[in-house]
Design a protein that fits this description.
Layout: H1 3-15, H2 27-32, E1 41-45, H3 51-58, E2 62-67, H4 70-83, E3 88-91, E4 104-110, H5 118-131, E5 132-143, H6 155-160, E6 164-171, E7 179-186
Parallel strand pairs: 1-2, 1-4, 2-3, 4-5
Antiparallel strand pairs: 5-7, 6-7
Length: 187
């Protein structure tokens, strides 16, 4: 994410609780947590205030949650402490993950990828492909393209081939916005 986008999201977390940060666990995330995984390692890209990272940690995963907003990460750490769980949270650009070594059994992105530029999406895909364990599952919630923002049909297949294959795509709304849940498996 570019510096302006990072500052914008940090400001949002400073002044309000964003509408997407409602603390709920979508059924798709609960289903993802049932992944049998070899290492039980998970990465939550664009984790915000840590709702999903904390949930996954509570399900027995060792979790790394990343977000570009220092305010969101501060809130995530406080929430994890309050829950008595220990996911690792870091302020970091999701397109530059060279500091991570993986491998991860599962990866989760609820609303991050669809906000990145085309070039950033390509870097993100390469980094995640490198970090994911063969047989791992990647779950993405992404809004449909509106006014130049969001994902277009076929984009996920192009971005993540040949490292991943699309298992299924499910419709899913968030606060009235048309979106999809993309289930990908690492080859």
């Amino acid at each position: 994410m570019d510096a302006i986008g990072s500052l914008m999201y940090d400001m949002i977390y400073r002044i309000t609780r964003p509408r997407w940060d409602d603390g709920s666990i979508p059924p798709q995330v609960a289903q993802l947590a049932a992944h049998s995984g070899i290492t039980k390692n998970a990465i939550d890209l664009g984790c915000g205030t840590g709702t999903h990272s904390i949930y996954l940690a509570g399900q027995g995963f060792s979790v790394v949650g990343l977000d570009s907003s220092p305010t969101a990460i501060h809130l995530a750490r406080a929430r994890a402490t309050q829950a008595g769980l220990h996911p690792e949270f870091s302020v970091h650009d999701v397109t530059r993950l060279d500091f991570l070594h993986g491998p991860f059994d599962i990866a989760l992105d609820v609303g991050c990828l669809h906000g990145l530029s085309a070039i950033a999406r390509q870097r993100y895909a390469l980094e995640l492909t490198r970090l994911m364990l063969s047989g791992g599952t990647f779950l993405v919630w992404g809004g449909d393209r509106v006014a130049g923002f969001g994902l277009v049909p076929g984009e996920m297949e192009k971005l993540f081939a040949p490292g991943f294959r699309i298992e299924r795509v499910e419709p899913g709304q968030n606060h009235g916005r048309q979106a999809k849940w993309y289930w990908l498996n690492r080859n």
